[in-house]
Design brief:
This protein is mainly α. The chain is 78% helix and 0% strand.
């Protein structure tokens, strides 16, 4: 790969966040998750549990596949074939969601819908392993945190843009574009293909403009064998880098809380506060706006005081605002708590990637970023499993959502004990 990559190549890489964030915003968090629990499932409580179980299965498969495929790709050289193969799996899953019709006596689309969304989620998550691993090779060392933060902010803009399009063109439009039938929920079901098309189109610039590593020329069998050997060595040697292992453990927990918050935020708003689907989408837009602003604004805090204090500040904010949302008794209070909560989501994500860039040894940075990605997936099944199970056992979405607080608390406590010394690494002023 040529050095250095052009600004256009880096922007094309960052634009992939703009592409894939539509899935999280529209499918997982607000529109389709809510539609499934309210219309496809038998009832909202059962639907919440079923959605949680589907996300659990998808997360477990992701956790099993990601390190193996990542190690094989490292030995084979190229990452983009893997990235786009799983991206197109996600596109196919989104297209299939068009067939997810509302529940009717004697005819249920529950299993079909859950399989389609689980496949799409698997594609998104595994593709992200290869996407994140490309960052240290397309951006200079002094700009890793900057490009990571910009990509995250761009991702929030993508999620917000797709939500607005879904709201204006389909869900709230009367009549919806293309004359879609509201009686059979076509105006909501179309959001699946909308996200699939969005993901396909906005991922194309990276496919064309962002360079990939050269192929190592290994036969497939040799790449698999060497990749598995390298994976064993990586896991065996992780104990040598105790700071990295400590951080990844802390991040694994608080990221699980974040992922679960997004997966069930729309379901909670609709089920507990009787918010309509258009209102849930508007709530999602608010969260995307404040999260993007938080990612941009706290980048300056990260530069000034370091990534670890920035993450801890964000986790305190997430805990307090999540608790306020769980205790809220009216929609207005939920909106206020949700808007404030979003401010701390972006910094927790962007500063985590920045901290990993500072901790990772230079000779192992790409490999460590693969483990960093895995740390966000390894226990991703736990949050949805707890929320779904507690909701089903207690019949209360509030109690189910309260389990998220544990992840923020324990993850923050572990990060607090991470022994870091010295001043934060800051890029030269005015550099881009």
């Amino acid at each position: 790969m040529s050095e250095p990559s052009s600004t256009a190549a880096r922007f094309a890489w960052a634009l992939y966040d703009f592409a894939n964030s539509a899935f999280a915003a529209v499918i997982v968090t607000f529109v389709f998750a809510t539609y499934f629990s309210q219309a496809v499932a038998v009832d909202p409580i059962t639907g919440t549990a079923q959605w949680g179980w589907a996300m659990t299965v998808s997360a477990v498969i992701t956790a099993l596949l990601s390190p193996v495929l990542g190690a094989i790709a490292d030995r084979g050289g190229r990452r983009k074939p893997w990235l786009f193969g799983f991206t197109w799996l996600a596109v196919a899953g989104c297209l299939l969601l068009w067939l997810a019709r509302p529940y009717e006596a004697g005819q249920s689309w529950v299993l079909f819908t859950l399989v389609a969304v689980a496949l799409a989620n698997l594609g998104i998550e595994v593709a992200g392993v290869f996407y994140n691993a490309m960052l240290p090779e397309i951006a200079p060392k002094a700009r890793l945190g900057r490009w990571s933060g910009w990509a995250w902010a761009l991702g929030y803009a993508g999620g917000m843009s797709c939500l607005i399009l879904a709201l204006v063109g389909f869900v709230q439009a009367d009549p919806p574009w293309f004359g879609l039938d509201q009686q059979t929920a076509e105006h909501v079901r179309i959001t699946g293909p909308l996200v699939g098309l969005w993901l396909f189109l906005f991922s194309l610039p990276m496919l064309v403009l962002t360079p990939d590593r050269q192929s190592a020329g290994l036969p497939a069998r040799s790449a698999v064998r060497q990749g598995l050997t390298q994976l064993r060595l990586t896991l065996a040697n992780l104990g040598t880098y105790r700071l990295v292992g400590h951080f990844l453990l802390a991040r694994m927990l608080y990221t699980d809380g974040l992922n679960t918050l997004f997966a069930f935020g729309g379901i909670y708003a609709a089920g507990t506060f009787n918010m309509t689907l258009p209102e849930v989408i508007q709530f999602g837009i608010l969260l995307n706006v404040t999260s993007g602003l938080g990612a941009l604004g706290f980048a300056w805090v990260d530069d000034r005081i370091g990534a670890k204090p920035t993450i801890l500040m964000a986790l305190v904010g997430l805990f307090v605002c999540s608790l306020a949302a769980i205790l809220a008794q009216d929609v207005t209070s939920l909106w206020i708590a949700g808007g404030l909560l979003g401010i701390f989501v972006g910094p927790a994500q962007a500063a985590s990637r920045s901290l990993m860039a500072h901790l990772a040894p230079a000779e192992l940075r790409t490999e460590m970023f693969g483990l960093y990605t895995l740390s966000g997936k390894a226990t991703a099944f736990l949050g949805p499993l707890l929320v779904g199970s507690v909701t089903l056992w207690t019949g209360s979405q509030r109690l189910g959502m309260a389990t998220i607080l544990v992840f923020f608390l324990v993850g923050g406590a572990l990060l607090w004990r991470l022994p870091l010394a010295g001043r934060p690494v800051v890029a030269p002023a005015g550099a881009a």
